[in-house]
Specification:
single chain; Alpha-lytic protease prodomain-like; 3 strands; 2 domains; Alpha-Beta Plaits; about 10% strand
Amino acid sequence: MKAENNSSIAAVWISLFSNIFLTAIKVIVGVLFKSQVLLADGIHNAGDVIATGAALSSMKISKQPADDDHPYGHGKAEVLGSGIVAFILALASVYMGYHAVTAFWEEPAEASWFAFAAALISLVWKQALYVYTIKLGRQAKSKALIATAYDHLADVYASIAAVIGIGLSLIGEAYDISYLSYGDPAAGIIVSFLVLKLAYEMARESMDILMEKTISEHKLNEYQELIQTVPAVKRIDRLRAREHGHYVLVDVRVSIPADMTIQQGHDVSREIKKAIMDKHDDVGEVMIHLNPWYKA
């Protein structure tokens, strides 16, 4: 587990330095060669630097053990970090969309092979980062790392649009097709919608967890089947579960024979907890309430 956490932190640091480097490249090339989509993508990357910093901070906080003020742990810190990333992505999408639209009322800038190369490098780099971070994020069940991966995915979309847009502009200049000169800003509009959609989905997931929405019915059915394997359990009266960042909290009420002793009831609780946690390593706690069951 410690090695997994270290790998997750390392992935975020790699993402942070990558975003700083790509921001510098895109902004410099975008300004020098007047590429709207590349400049907008560079500003988006600048927001990614802040977002990655938020993810790094939230991951460190979420790994802290439970204390008197936070008896259920600090897992939701990652959810807050994910929400911050979603907010920054939404702002970036609005910024990109606005500047892409206004570019249609301006004289199209001359297409540049340097801008095309910068967008292509960003595309390959960000795709590699996405694959790397999403794999680690899912293994560690880290909301912050998964949010960082989706942030990279948004950059992949932006880079694809930039490559296509700048590529169309280059073709338009080479073959004197005037309307293709606006391929750059047109691509910027498309990517702004894609990034906004991604931001909405991330924000909705974060809100669901903060509002303690129940986990999927499929998962609840799996827990129910495991509880029913405990011989002393006569009836499941209530079963609830919610995500708490990178782990799940399960709350169950079961009925057991009323003539069982306190010690026997305690042993039943331990059996239920063990049955669930042995099969689901993402479950951080199982809270069990025992009710008396009387034979009819």
